[in-house]
Amino acid sequence: MTAMVTLPAAPPAPGACEEERVAFLWSLIEPGFFAEVGWDDERRVLSAPVDHPMLGMRACPVPDCDLPSKSRGLCRTCQDQHRKSGLPLEEFVKLPRTAPRVGAGGCRVGGCERTWINSNRQPLCRSHWYRYRQSGGTLMEFLADPAVLALPRLGDCGVLACTRQTVTVVGHRLCHPHGKQLNHLRKADADIDEQLWLRTVPSGCSGSEISFRGLADLVVAQLLFGVQHRCRRGAKTDIGGLRALIDRTIRPSLAGRLEDVPVPEANGTAKVLLNRLTAYALRAFKSPEGEYGKDVWDLAVFGHRGSVEFTDVHQPWLKETAKRWARDYLTRVRSRSTSSHARQHMIGLSFLSRSLRARPDQGMDTTVLARADVENYLNRMTFLEANGRIAAGTRTSYVRAARNVLRQGRVMGLTRSDGPMAGLPDDFVITRHDVPKPPEPSEEGQDLPPEVMRQLCAHLDLFEEMTCRELRVAAELMMDTGRRPEEICKLEFHCLNRDRQGKPVLVYNNWKEQRIRRELPIHEPTAQVIREQQERVRLLYPDRPPSKLALLPSSVMNQLGAKGIDANHFSGMHREWVTAQPEFRLDDGTAVDKEEIFPYAYRHSFAQRHADAGVPIEVLSPLMDHDSYQSTRCYYRVKEVRLREAVDKVTTMQFDRHGQRVWGAVTTLLDAERTRLAIGSVQVPFGTCSEPSNVAAGGDACPLRFRCMGCDHYSTDIPHLPELAAYLDGLLRQRERLRSMTEADEWARVEATPSEEEITRVRRLIRRVTEEVDQLTDAERAEIQQATAMVRKTRQGFLGMPRVPQPLPDLRPERPS
């Protein structure tokens, strides 16, 4: 049976009285939270337990000491005692506390309701203390005297925030500390406003106690609700900082609402805490219906982050259309980039609004708008791009955003008679052809060269020293898996799984497209990194269930271990790490701009490595979790450009069957030459063949039965050297094997034995190609080697033979041993 969920009450109307607002906030505070934080509603005092994970402090390790610790793990009193004792800290913490308690306690006289003053070092109230000093006897004799009578309490201290008893009735009824404080103030300033002082002076609480006495009821409810919200989010709130905020900022302001408290200028911690508590308290009264009438929406009410503004859309009909679109969009799209996309659409719509304001009616009348107004808007955007005011990609995204809003408005029926777009002509529309085409992707690609990846991997220890272990693991996983930074930063603890073959699989969530529980095959070294991080997390949070933990827990506002590291924080620390490294250079000496090294480049590098390695697009596209092949195809375009450059380089080292250079001094093939070579030759085992009948048959009709060394139509290049060497070894092995056979006829052995002329020709060809390579400079040889590796890596099977499906290659960046 499904449990019933208790829905919270609807927030009061904006003009509701203070009592309704207070009652609503109290209804949002969980009953168990009061006991959890030690809330005393009668005294209005919060006494958080020392071991509370969000509010508590570390307990003093000295036996019989229940005070929170300060520096070096000891409370202030025990720290003074340790300094006086001269004992090592390990021995001191084994001794029970001997220092007296600071504060007030009950008078030792039987039945006396007044408190003793600890500074007197005698457990007697002030009245009994004076009589005891006049008696001249011992304390035991004084307590046994039947003439010593119990006294009733004098009431609470006159300071509104104070929780202590009154010890004097002369003038104001004050406790001992506040009485001494007022006397000092009177001596320093005779014109002091004592009534205001009684209302604003701090409570004097210490330890884990916070007094809410003297604050407005609404402020108390707002503070408690804000503290509960922080605790449930896993944010640690310093008790001392919260007490200082109340005593030094909120109480002196005499504000009736938390939002009326002036923000402190000097104390950054108090400012942040006040802003957070105020935001949480105000957000409790918000609703999607209430936000709709505003020009600035708090998207937290809709379940998203940040805010979106409609202030730059000036036409009422266009602003209402934008709000209708935003409300519909926020309910349909649930990714973490929803808020940024919504803001981008509003910015794009603001450009359209500015263009319409140039009309005589400022675009207020929808019935007079026409296609010419759309053209004016498009021309304005073109002008802004031409003058460098906006980038080409920005112009495309803004025009597309305005088109989406207007098109979705028509789909939603906003052009009806009662809609905001009523009367809008049909030709007032931004068509698909009006949206500028996005700029072509760079042919250079956004992946990082292998030299850069090797240097980054070699400095991973530096990254860990500068940051923490979690950020280093995040960087390694991004390099190995090609997942987006947000996907890695938000990995769950149980993100490592096994497929049916027992191979490791990474389980992640595609937050960009809202695809949950995606799986990516990974290799064992990457799985080992995840297992080691899981062990570390279990040591950090031994009492938390693994299902509630993050694989890469954040060190900020994360006492429960459920919050992962922030992708923006990772990006910032990654930038500092890259900046701190030596200059990045390629093997040819070219310097690499450090601005091109960013976390998302690891995803491009992952995709480009697999594309260059010959992984088919139908395999790589699911690996990248792309919607269509269009997104994946850009990596193959980069591959084709690089392959073309590599072919140009190795073609300059092309040889005929005699070992003579074919192209000589040619450095780059013309397009016509490359096309002629592509259609006028065919691949053969150790090079290319241009014999017409064989080319026409796709390589299946060689008149010489593939005795290429005796044909002038044959040519080879450096990438075929390994195959030529293997072919020579095979000829030699076959010749020796046939010579040792005695059970075969002589004519059969002669026919099957490789000819000495073919062996000699192959040897000479290999020698001539090797000599040509040896004559190159070191730089030229390095370029040829790189080009050869590219050509060999992307070369398909011979003569169109089908390839056997292979497992995903291990293309992880190299790690230093």
Please explain how this structure is put together.
- With 817 residues, the chain is an alpha+beta fold.
- The chain has five domains: 34-83 and 86-96 and 209-283, no CATH class; 104-200, no CATH class; 288-434, no CATH class; 450-640, Orthogonal Bundle (hpI Integrase, Chain A), CATH 1.10.443; 652-775, no CATH class.
- A four-stranded antiparallel β-sheet has the order 13-16-15-14, with no helix packed on it. The chain has a three-stranded antiparallel β-sheet with strand order 1-2-5.
- A hairpin with a 2-residue loop joins strand 14 and strand 15.
- Helix 9 crosses helix 11 (268-283), helix 14 (338-357) crosses helix 16 and helix 28 runs antiparallel to helix 30.
- The longest helix has 23 residues, at 629-651.
- 28% of the residues are buried.
Notable characteristics:
817 residues; alpha+beta; 5 domains; 4-stranded antiparallel sheet; 3-stranded antiparallel sheet; 6% strand; elongated
Shape category: elongated
Number of DSSP E strands: 16
The main β sheet shows up as: 4 strands, antiparallel
Determine the strand fraction and express it as a percent band: 5-15%
Helix/strand layout:
Layout: H1 18-28, H2 31-37, E1 39-40, E2 45-47, H3 76-85, H4 89-92, E3 104-106, E4 115-117, H5 126-135, H6 139-144, H7 176-188, H8 194-200, E5 209-211, H9 217-233, H10 239-253, H11 268-283, H12 288-292, E6 296-298, E7 307-309, H13 316-332, H14 338-357, H15 371-386, H16 392-411, H17 450-458, H18 460-466, H19 469-481, H20 485-489, E8 496-498, E9 504-510, E10 515-521, H21 524-540, H22 567-580, E11 584-585, E12 591-592, H23 601-612, H24 617-624, H25 629-651, E13 655-656, H26 671-679, E14 682-684, E15 687-689, H27 692-696, E16 714-716, H28 721-739, H29 746-752, H30 756-774, H31 778-794
Antiparallel strand pairs: 1-2, 2-5, 3-4, 6-7, 8-9, 9-10, 11-12, 13-16, 14-15, 15-16
Helix pairs in contact: 1-9, 9-11, 10-11, 13-14, 13-16, 14-15, 14-16, 18-19, 19-21, 19-23, 23-25, 24-25, 25-31, 28-30
